[in-house]
Amino acid sequence: MAQDSFQSAKQFRDSKHFPYGFGRSGVFTTRQAMLLEKHGQAYDDLASGLRTPQTAEESQFLEFCQGQRTAQNDHEKIWLQYRQHIGRKTSYLSMEAGRGKSQPAMADYSDDDSWDDIS
User: Would you say 21 and 73 are in contact if contact means Cβ atoms under 8 Å apart?
Assistant: First the structure.
């Protein structure tokens, strides 16, 4: 891993998907979270085209992002893991699914006299 690859003055954060940080998410190991925080801005800039590759390693990373090769080093693997995680749709199961707020949980037949006629 080249020392001058993936350098960025800005620490990478994603408070939308990881409001408590990458290290507390349970998705990444401590080392992965540190790599993502330190180099994630460079990964994002390279992947989006805001930054041109400065080293051979960054050129390979760009090829990976464009789908020309599989993830082979730590930078590529952590970026793949991050992208896969934020691409997932989270679904929630509610015990009241499909029931509107105005509908009662059970029908109320206490005022219905038709039940009195049944013998």
Answer: no
Cβ atoms of 5 and 51 within 8 Å: the answer is no
Q: Which of 40, 6, 47, 1 is nearest to 23 (CA)?
A: 40
C-alpha closest to that of 51 among 1, 6, 3, 2: 6
**Strand ranges (E), the chain:** none
Radius of gyration of the chain (CA): 26
**Contact between 54 and 4 (Cβ < 8 Å):** yes
User: How many CA atoms within 13 Å lie on the side-chain side of 106?
Assistant: 3
- Could you tell me the pTM of the whole model? 0.70
Q: What is the pLDDT of residues 12-33, one digit of tens each?
A: 999 999 999 999 999 999 999 9
* Residues 37, 82 contacting (CB under 8 angstroms): no
